[in-house]
Every structure is written in structure tokens, then in C-alpha cells.
Amino acid sequence: MQRVTALIPAGNEAHQIADAIRSVLWADEVLVVVDASSNDGTQAAASGIAPNVRVVPHEFLSYASQKNWAISQASHPWIFALDADERPDAALIAGVRKVLEGSPDSDAYWVSRRTHMLGRTLRFGGQSKDRVIRLFSRGCRYQDRPVHEEVEGYRTIGTLPGHLDHHTFGSWEQFVAKQEKYARLGAEQAHAEGRGAGRSDVIFRPLHRFVKQYVFRLGFLDGVPGAAAAYLGAYGTFLKYARLWDLGRRSREASGA
Asked: Of 81, 75, 10, which Cα lies nearest the Cα of 41?
């Protein structure tokens, strides 16, 4: 049996970190890496749950660097990565165990993710196609980028059964704050890569995002939660490109162009 560390990065997640930990107590080790600047009691809430849980504070620089540092601290050769708002279902847990009971034929595995929002499981709007890499060998790492970092360094990749349930919406304030944070990081990343944005990007990219998600990908079939997801996605897109335009404007002014 291959041994596995369940890895949970967390920052200001006191309200849900205990449930996240309990969902992966089947792992040989649960490593919770807490953003050292968290101020809501996350570290205390994560501590003392079970003997195989290890809680370590670490200075947060970026999502990728936090996860890569955590991987280097893991005790076992396999990693099962989990965000604080995610829960593996029974079929996924069984799939992980089956892979690790033998000789894994891949060194990374895709996991399908189900998004829950406003009391509903989103089945349209592109949500049903969401998948992420969550089980991988410890030799893999996350891409060094500020947002939307992906696992890299694997040679072969497989797919696990079951789902990861993603409870992305805790409150309106929390979700909007997350959209704004990702928009800022995405704009900064694009700017650093030499990309810019113009008036058409600021106007039409959010509109395109909404129409694609709500109309062409049938998000309207998910009722009010589907509409909220589409509008909030468009809002995040607007913020990203408006910020990117502004970063370009500031750079031009600073250079005298």
C-alpha cells in the first residue's frame, strides 16, 4: 500500500477547516499548512482533531509557493491536495485507495469536481466539465504563477472515479472578495507577461463570459444559482481586464509614453 499525505493549504478558514480535515482522515497523514497571517483562529480550529493531523504555519507568498513548500514537508510519497472548501465523496476516496493499494500506472490523476452554490449543485454553465489534478506523486510541483496554478512534472496522468464536492460559496461577501482577489492576481500576472487590455476587452470580454456560460452552456437551467454564477463570473472578468487596462495606463504614464 502506497502511503499518502492529504495536503490542505488554509488561510482564514476557521469556519470550515475542521470539516475539511475530517473528510481526509483516511489518509496516512493530514498536513494543514496555515497562512501565518491568518487572524481568525484557523490554526487553533485545525489542531487536536486526530493523531495523524499535523498543523504548520508558514508565511504566504503565493498559492503556488505555499503548496510547493507544503509538498516538501509531506511525510509520504503521494499527495492528495484539498482546498478547505472541497470534500471528496465516497467513490473518490475508494478510487484513491484502489490506486494506492497496487502499483499506480500514472504519477498524477484527474478528479472531477462538482460545484455547489446557493443550495444547488451546478450542472450546467460548463460546471459539469470542471476537473482538477488532486492526487499526484511527491515529485510533482505547482506552476510558479500567482493564480490558476496547475500541477506539473508528471509523465503520465490518469482519471479517478467519483467527485470532489466544491462548496465555493460561503457568503456573498466572501465570494465577491474571492472574485476580486483572483481578478487582481490575474491582471497582475497578465501585465507581467506583457499583455494589455483595451476598451473592447473591458466591454466585451465580460459580456462574452456571461453569454457563453449562461446561454450557450445552458447555465439558465440551474435557475437563480446559475444566473448568479454567470453574473459573478462576468463581474470577475470585468475586474480583471479593467485592472489590466489600468496597469497598462500607469506603465505608460510612468514611462512618459
From this structure: 10
